Amino acid sequence: MLAENNEAELREFCVTLHPSRTADFMDGLTPGEAWQILKHAERSRASEIFGFFDHDFQKQIIETQDREEIALLIAELSSDDRVDLLSDVDEDIKEDLLKRLPVDERRDIMRLSQYPEGTAGSIMATEFMKLPETLTIGEAIREIGKQSEHVETIYYVYIVDDEGHLRGVVSARQLLAGLRNPLTKLSEIMETALISANAQEDQADVVKKVARMDLLAIPVVDDENHIVGIITHDDVIDVVREEAQDDLVRSAAVEPLEDTYLNTSILTFSYKRGLWLLVLFLGSLMTATALQSYDRHLEAWAWLVPFIPMIISTGGNSGNQSATLIIAALVHGEVTVKDWLRVIVREFIMGILLGFKLGFVGYLIVLFFFPSVPGFPQVLIVPLTLVMVILTGTITGATLPLFFKFLGLDPALMSNPFVAGIVDILGIIIYLTIAGFFLPSPFSS
Questions:
Q1: What element of type H or E holds 172?
Q2: Tens digits of per-residue pLDDT, 40-76?
């Protein structure tokens, strides 16, 4: 179709399927080829298909195609999407496109761009349904019919006073049910106990509100309670995915990427990964130093050496388990720094239970698979060490995220590397200290 420039078939292609499927079928095309296809669709349809392209592909189209035509497309995008997209475009191109946009869209983009990254204002859309509280239900229905093509959603209609202050909300269901009495004013049926978000509020807190109240959209207000936008459930899903990805990356001791994996330069990767690898390396160096200080002990008690990897890895794993659970609880608001004592008590009990379970398994392994162990009571060294190391790991893993949160640092990024380093060192000290109670000192004559 494209090679033959078959306009009729290209137009049909753009409207036959759902926009997401159309975008999928265009995967593999160059930005120029994709743009040639979009030009055969109506502008609103083209913007829908464009919205399902990969972010980097969208950026390539914007930076390479005719600016005047691109400006017309951008004007059709939702306010939050176009701000997000233009923020990654070359500054000169962005300025050129802004000059070509209608005045209202340009002002809207400039205003939304002022909100700091990660706030409610930075992800809100400004196309929403708002009506004065003095309208009747019948008048509201007619007004909705006029505005419906230019708003993000009509699930909720936000009710304002003459100064634009948010007074309440009416759902589409309430309006339809109220048609039996079309002369009833909106002020009589609106819900006034509504949940809202401040434009400067952290987007993670907004996500919690939407999830807790099971909302399809949440209004965003300024400090004077003027409604300035809404955040819809699809925006919330995007935030949840982004934060989950960031937390996953942080759990591996890597700072979140500002771009995609393939578009991030090797030098940027080497810095982000190398920084924490250096921290982990220094932690391992301290473990080696701790081992070196027990050289004579290990020479005399050589049968203890094979168990060292098992002991320190078990301690590190138990610590990382606790750290991950506490970090997740902090993210979801299930735990705060004030709950530190309850957390420590719970992890202490958990450490004892896990320690005795794995200690018993360790006892059987030593007893039946390692004949080099001298016998009783030396056979108790490994299981007792496992109990103490696992207990140390669970408490350390639970405490560090709370401590870093208290200091205002990112617990997801900071905790796991420190847990591994601390538990490794303490594991060596605990192991050889317990061994010292059961074995003769290598320093005695």
A1: helix 172-177
A2: 888 889 988 998 998 889 989 999 999 999 999 998 8
pLDDT band at 198 (very low <50, low <70, confident <90, very high): very high
User: Which of 390, 415, 389, 413 has the alpha carbon at shortest distance from 402?
Assistant: 415
Phi/psi-derived region of residue 408, left when phi > 0, alpha when psi is between -120 and 50, beta in every other case: left
Query: Does residue 385 carry a pLDDT above 90?
Result: yes
Nearest to 170 by CA among 140, 126, 146: 140
According to DSSP, residue 257 is labeled: P
Rounded CA separation 37/26 (Å): 9
Q: What is the mean pLDDT of the segment spanning 366-381? A: 81
Q: What domains lie within the chain, and their CATH numbers? A: 7-114 (1.25.60.10), 130-233 (3.10.580.10), 266-438 (1.10.357.20)
Q: How confident is the model at residue 1 (pLDDT cuts 50, 70, 90)?
A: low
DSSP states along 352-407: HHHHHHHHHHHHHHHHHH-TTS--TTGGGHHHHHHHHHHHHHHHHHHHHHHHHHHT
Distance CA 182, CA 177 (A): 10
DSSP string, 34-47: HHHHHTTS-HHHHH
Q: What is the tens place of the pLDDT at every residue in 137-159? A: 999 998 888 877 777 677 889 99
Give the list of residues 6+ apart from residue 153 with CB closer than 8 angstroms, or none. 128, 129, 216, 217, 230, 232
